[in-house]
């Protein structure tokens, strides 16, 4: 008699609610229908009454047609790979929005003719590293290495590389395998911890395409170690390709051990590759700098077309290079002295709401494959461990880290203007 299934309104009847009609126009039919079907299911199981189905579906609607949501990074890891690496600067976000529609990415508005693709971004890149004879942009640093290997050694010639630099980048992908899949032959030299100039010199022959220096950006080897720098290799008579990784364009005072593009070129590298979304603080991209003729060869290689970046990347990259300092480099040089004060203030406000919050000294890290040994003095709000999961489930999700049974919200990676958002998120998580 009281079977709740008999009172479940039909899907099309629910979808006729004006709020859901509007939602279909905003995020599309499939996502709205899924919210409705899920709400009907909850009513069938008795979790909600049938008359709440519309309300429940409206509440469950995703805000966007994409599942990617803005997240607050309170991990203390400046470049967090799982959180999309570098957040873009406001200038870059603006540029992406402007380029997202119809845009002049390959069109000269003055002449009405086809124009070189992404000229603005390439000019900005060249201006940022004036000593580079040529510059090019591909999808990411892995693509940059792939293109270099294909163009210079894909015919089976040899790439000489130190055994200490056979790096796994992440997610199981390894640079030696990436190079080998182009048809190039790897010629490993030296030992894991030590490599000498002679090791390289002995390995070079008429089949050598280039010597590759890969910055071990996500691990440290310490103790009895020796590596050979670009300047020591420059006299070997073959091109030196340097993968500097992090995308520092010039030396950084806080990161003395992190290689940079300008220095690698000055030391004699023929080509330098780097990521756009690490310490440069821009979009995912592979940046290539070097001798004009080599860069030209890369640009005209058939595979270049498969590795080329889209208008959104070009827009974000140009604005990153020309605009104000993006968040990642800004966080790196930002004052660390006020972090503990912010943590104290936040914690005391939260204690007033009855939450067990205390300020603690912590260490932040660059992360994301850069400056692996560098620890940055930082401060966090320490909360009971259960907050880690509760905050992730909030809106916006706040991602902290669990350390010794405490949930730490590290403020190095939180803009001071967002402290209020963090406080509100913690209060909301406390009552869930
Ligand atoms: C991060 C990194 C890569 C991979 O770069 P992606 O842009 O993620 O493809 C390659 N080499 C080094 C040294 C790196 O640090």
TrEMBL record:
Family annotation (Pfam families): Se-cys_synth_N, SelA
Residue span(s) of domain L-seryl-tRNA selenium transferase N-terminal: 5-44
Signal peptide: none
Places the protein is found: Cytoplasm
Pathway annotation: Aminoacyl-tRNA biosynthesis; selenocysteinyl-tRNA(Sec) biosynthesis; selenocysteinyl-tRNA(Sec) from L-seryl-tRNA(Sec) (bacterial route): step 1/1
Main location: cytoplasm
SUPFAM superfamilies: PLP-dependent transferases
Keywords: Cytoplasm, Protein biosynthesis, Pyridoxal phosphate, Selenium, Transferase
PTM annotation (N6-(pyridoxal phosphate)lysine): residues: 278
Entry keyword annotation includes Transferase: yes
Presence of the UniProt keyword Transmembrane helix in the record: no
Reaction it catalyzes: L-seryl-tRNA(Sec) + selenophosphate + H(+) = L-selenocysteinyl-tRNA(Sec) + phosphate
HAMAP family: SelA (MF_00423)
Name assigned to this protein: L-seryl-tRNA(Sec) selenium transferase
Gene expressing this chain: selA
């Amino acid at each position: 008699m009281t079977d709740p299934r008999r009172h479940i309104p039909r899907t099309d009847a629910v979808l006729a609610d004006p709020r859901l009609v509007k939602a279909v126009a905003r995020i599309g039919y499939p996502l709205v229908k899924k919210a409705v079907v899920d709400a009907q299911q909850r009513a069938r199981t008795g979790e909600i009454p049938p008359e709440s189905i519309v309300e429940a579906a409206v509440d469950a609607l995703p805000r966007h047609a994409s599942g990617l949501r803005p997240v607050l990074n309170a991990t203390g890891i400046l470049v967090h790979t799982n959180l999309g690496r570098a957040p873009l600067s406001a200038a870059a976000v603006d540029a992406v929005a402007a380029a997202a529609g119809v845009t002049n990415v390959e069109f000269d508005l003055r002449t009405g003719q086809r124009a070189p693709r992404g000229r603005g971004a390439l000019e900005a890149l060249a201006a940022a590293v004036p000593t580079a004879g040529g510059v090019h942009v591909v999808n990411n640093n892995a693509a940059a290495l792939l293109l270099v290997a294909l163009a210079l050694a894909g015919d089976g010639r040899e790439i000489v590389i130190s055994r200490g630099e056979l790096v796994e980048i992440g997610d199981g992908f390894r640079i030696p395998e990436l190079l080998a899949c182009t048809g190039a032959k790897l010629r490993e030299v030296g030992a894991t911890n030590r490599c000498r100039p002679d090791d390289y010199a002995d390995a070079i022959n008429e089949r050598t395409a280039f010597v590759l220096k890969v910055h071990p950006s996500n691990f440290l080897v310490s103790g009895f170690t020796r590596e050979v720098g670009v300047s020591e290799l420059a006299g070997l008579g073959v091109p030196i390709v340097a993968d500097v990784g992090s995308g520092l364009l010039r030396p950084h005072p806080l990161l003395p051990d992190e290689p940079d593009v300008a220095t690698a070129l000055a030391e004699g590298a023929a080509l330098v590759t780097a990521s756009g979304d690490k310490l440069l603080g821009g979009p995912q991209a592979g940046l290539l700098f070097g001798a004009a003729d080599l860069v030209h060869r890369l640009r005209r290689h058939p595979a270049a077309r498969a590795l080329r970046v889209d208008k959104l990347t070009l827009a974000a990259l140009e604005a990153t290079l020309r605009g104000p300092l993006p968040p990642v480099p800004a966080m790196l040089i930002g004052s660390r002295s006020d972090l503990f004060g912010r943590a104290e203030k936040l914690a005391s406000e939260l204690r007033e709401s009855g939450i067990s919050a205390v300020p603690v000294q912590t260490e932040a890290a660059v992360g994301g494959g850069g400056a692996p040994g560098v620890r940055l003095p930082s401060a966090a709000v320490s909360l009971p461990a259960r907050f880690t999961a509760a905050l992730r489930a909030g809106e916006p999700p706040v991602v902290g880290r669990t350390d010794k049974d405490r949930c730490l919200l590290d403020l190095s990676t939180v803009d001071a203007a967002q402290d209020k958002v963090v406080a509100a998120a913690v209060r909301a998580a406390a009552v869930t």
